Amino acid sequence: MSKAAPQEVIKEPSMLKQKEMIDANFKSLSTANEEGRKVSSTFVPGNLNELLMCFDITRNFPEINALQNGMRKKSGRLIMEAERHGQSEDVCTYVKSDLGMMLQGNIGPTGDKLPDPDVLLLSYTGCFTFMKWFELVREKYDCETIMLHVPYQADGKITPNMRDYVVKQLKEDVIPTLERVSGIKFDIDRLRQYMRESAKAEDDLVWILQSAKNRPSPIDAFFGGVYYIGPIFTAFRGTEAATEYYRTLRGEIQQRLANGQGPVTPEGDFGKERFRLVVEGTPNYTNFREFWKMFYDEGAVVVASSYTKVGGVYDFGFRHDPDNPIESLADYCLGCYTNLSLPARIKMLCSYIDDYQADGLVINSVKSCNSFSAGQLLMLREIEKRTGKPGAFIETDLVDPRYFSAANVKNRLESYFQMLQQKGANQAA
Amino acid sequence: MTVQEIVDRCQALYDDLHFNVVKEWKAAEPGRKAIGYLPIYVPREIIHAAGMLPVGILGGGDQLEVIHGDAYYQSYICRIPRSTIELGLTGRLDSLDGMLFPSICDVIRNLSGMWQLLFKDKYVRYFDVPQTYDDNIAGTFYIHELQSLRDDLGELAGRPITDDDLRRSIALYNDNRKALADLYQFRAGQPWQAPTSEIYLLLRAGMVLPVEEHSQLLRDYVAAAGREERPRRDNCRVVINGVFCEQPPLGLIKSLEMAGCYVVDDDFLLVTRWLLDDVPTTGEPMENLSKAFLHHSAATSAKFEPDKADKGKFLIEQVRNSGAEGVIFAAPSFCDPALLDRPMLQEALNRDDIPFTAFKYAENTGQLQAIREQAGTFADSIKLWSA
After folding, report:
1. How do the domains of chain A map onto residue ranges?
2. Which of A16, A190, A196, B127 has its CA 20 to 30 A from that of A378?
3. Partner B contacted by A333 (CB < 8 A)
4. What is the pLDDT of residues B126-182, one digit of tens each?
5. How many CB atoms lie within 10 A of CB A407?
6. DSSP three-state, residue A357
């Protein structure tokens, strides 16, 4: 299936709404210092968005800045700037993109100046690099740093000891520090209210992700999924705007289902669904659309992905719980995808292949993220063995354009799709 | 024993990638068990108290041909997990009844899951340690983790580990750390008498020998080295930093010495010196181990530094206390902890006018000429140009 060069990128109304939300947040960040609003920098996995809102703290997400810079083709020079200042070529490019941006005046992806943080809230969940990242950022700023250590679910379960440890940190360290930074006393009922909103949006998000069980799938749960998770994984979880966004999105997808349509791609309607895939790993952001096109040109739709779980795993029942707000925050942090053991990740991906009737698994292994990548080759073998479905393994990076080799990736994907074709994938479609 | 005899013994232990000494230890008494552990730190006292032999696993070095292990990892992952997998898949670790994977980085963390999948009949535990340091919060968590390890190992041993067992083991490891401190002090005072290529082999011996035997070996070495007449060279005194996980080949350490560097402190095999003070042998052993970890343990890249002002302080103290003239940052390729930490440590050294140089290595680095030249130039620059 080949498509003519697009005149204009096709976007759903929900995408436009999300763009407005993100732009507004960048604007809000850019004026935060001068307007005297307090600012936190914090990470996506295990983020405490509802809690930060209780203290009227504006949220800045360095990972989001990095990926937005990647999508806007700005990250390459930022990474090189960080390397010129002593960062190794071997380490995470999210970190280097962020540090490079700081070195160049901290102008954010939209061109607005990003604020100096008043607090660095390090939710240390599922990624070792986070710890060093905030130590590096802290070198530049004279502000409070909060470490929220979230233990790793090595045996595939949350133990009471893990939960108690996180709860204690929240109660005895995180909350008192945020009170001190903001000058606002903690109000648990305010937290409960935000969590009620979170749970509503989470219900809709799960419905949206699970709509991909239909044939044809009305969504792409990886490339499209990146957009769908945007608000709930970042500064908007717990807001009415997020609730409204997910309600709108759900409505759009309901309509697509009713019409028997597939996902919307940047070039319009998807066309015939030929292959249903599960994707493990992160996207590449520097060549996001080019990468996506390699899939939809072949009629390959992603029906489930692990990346849409890095900021929270909701499709196995977890919801932010206003009746147990602190414990629920702890469980949220503990349950994010990269905080799960390899066996638990394998089990989840196998269940996706079965539940979403996928034809195979694609692993996009990125150089930057050892948390995701270390062990993925064994995951591939195990999942192939358990499901009988073939897998493909490709290598790119998150935001370093030097590690995206379009020809190699395309070549490998085309071979994979040919193999799926020969195996008679999706014959029912 | 002479220095040569001790070094030869340690070299033989170092070269033996089949861990025959562990097999012999187990065979000497029916029912004995051995537990492997990866860098950086596990409380070996608990393993010992269970009557088991703690065995440090540090990858395959430059003598192991990695065939299977490379099939498990992408090119951008460091060497130690792939050679460790190789050791496991080729049966070299069969003598181990379990493996502990400490929280050091995402690669070793995920290796714990791989081990669960690949070696289903073995005891496997990811050993989480706190990254916060309050007794009431982190201590409570950590004591529970220690207790859980104690219960697991007690079950594996077929008998509970008593408090007295633990106190005895704590005393033995206190003694081992004392012997190591004496060795390090001896080297810092007379580095020409105790080359680091020998010290390193002594440390490595401690990864496979029972602690009692290792402590005696360390003392024997200091005594024997003190009797030797060795030439004193006008070398530069350096601290090596970054070698806490994947190990440099022995040839690299020798190359640094040949290039004119006396290594007077380092972060090799930190498990041996992680706890900086004696752990009390009275009172609650779990609580004592916890407090030692939280308040009296080494600073390293895998550990969060809560106070910005203290970043690099531990390294600077190493430099000052050992009388070093500079620092050599040697980090394994693709080592996130060491490489991300390095710029911050370098900045701290800059503030204190301590010179440094930096390079990367892999456990199987074979071409050492460039490193030797770099280290030699660094040593010369200090000797010729420092005030």
Report:
1. 1-429
2. B127
3. no
4. 999 999 999 999 999 999 999 999 999 999 999 999 999 999 999 999 999 999 999
5. 7
6. coil
